[in-house]
Amino acid sequence: MLDQSFYQKTDEIIAHYGKKASSLIPIMQDIQGEYRYLPGELLTYVAKEIGVKEAKAYSVATFYENFSFEPKGKYVIKVCDGTACHVRKSAPILEALFKELGLSQKKHTTDDMLFTVETVSCLGACGLAPTLTVNNEVHPTMSPEKALELVAELRGAGV
Ligand code: FES
């Protein structure tokens, strides 16, 4: 059950874009921008409010990879595992982050909601491989050591 404040915020977002089907994507983007994920309950609520079938809203949300139904951490780290990065040893970077944060391919977010670690297929910065992003900011030529330093810095900033 979501807190009432989630619905109040969602009402504001809906009012901003208007109760019409074409508002669906911008509303979902704003909700995700606010909470760093798209709670399923809110998607159901939005669909009803703007007159879109719930199944349609879900299919749109799942079509766009950018929408997430899972809560994410304050810092979303995406480790590139595209070919260029893989060749330049992105796997040990991912392993180091998983080990440091107690995460795995099945558990992506730390219990304190500070970090989410995911992989992506290419960040479009292959010349700087191996790369990772933190909340969409690119960090070039990474190593396991540099990744751990980055986590330590973010921990410092996040407390
Ligand atoms: S393969 Fe990693 S940035 Fe392209």
Automatic annotation (TrEMBL):
Keywords: 2Fe-2S, Iron, Iron-sulfur, Metal-binding, Oxidoreductase. Its EC number is 1.12.1.3. Gene3D superfamilies: Glutaredoxin, NADH-quinone oxidoreductase subunit E. Binds 1 [2Fe-2S] cluster. The keyword Ribosomal protein does not apply. Its cofactor is [2Fe-2S] cluster. InterPro entries: NADP_DH_HndA-like (IPR028431), NuoE-like (IPR002023), NuoE_dom (IPR042128), NuoE_N (IPR041921), Thioredoxin-like_sf (IPR036249). The keyword Phosphoprotein does not apply. PROSITE patterns: COMPLEX1_24K (PS01099). One of its GO terms (molecular function) is hydrogen dehydrogenase (NADP+) activity. [2Fe-2S] cluster binds at C80, C85, C122, C126. It comes from the Bacteria. Belongs to the complex I 24 kDa subunit family. This is NADP-reducing hydrogenase subunit HndA. It comes from Robinsoniella peoriensis.
